[in-house]
Amino acid sequence: MLHDRILVELDKEASERRSASGIVIPATAMLGKRLAWAEVVAAGPSVRQVAVGDHVLFDPEDRAEVEVGAKDYVLLRERDLHAVAESGEPARDLGLYL
């Protein structure tokens, strides 16, 4: 990775959500602008706030997708991130909204 670029992998299981009453909401449902969580798999030398393995929040509409080794990843700049989850916090327990 070069400069402030970050390569993240989307969580496939996080695409479907459950309502408070347990109803499954598919990823194709339109809910307005929604941010997405992903795991950092690589970071450039100029990245200061994020490390490999962190879970980050970003806008999925502002992304560049790339395929590496038959896997799909998203390429972002560090400034495009909205939040970084605390280390040790399980990704499945992250809230749906900030």
From TrEMBL:
List the protein's name. Answer: 10 kDa chaperonin
Q: Does the keyword Cell membrane apply?
A: no
For this UniProt entry, the molecular function terms from Gene Ontology, in alphabetical order, are: ATP binding; metal ion binding; protein folding chaperone; protein-folding chaperone binding; unfolded protein binding
Which keywords fit this entry according to its UniProt record?
Chaperone
InterPro entries linked to this entry? Chaperonin_GroES, Chaperonin_GroES_sf, GroES-like_sf
Which Gene3D superfamilies does the protein's record reference? GroES chaperonin
Matching entries from CDD domains are given as: cpn10 (cd00320)
Q: Which domain of life is it from?
A: Bacteria
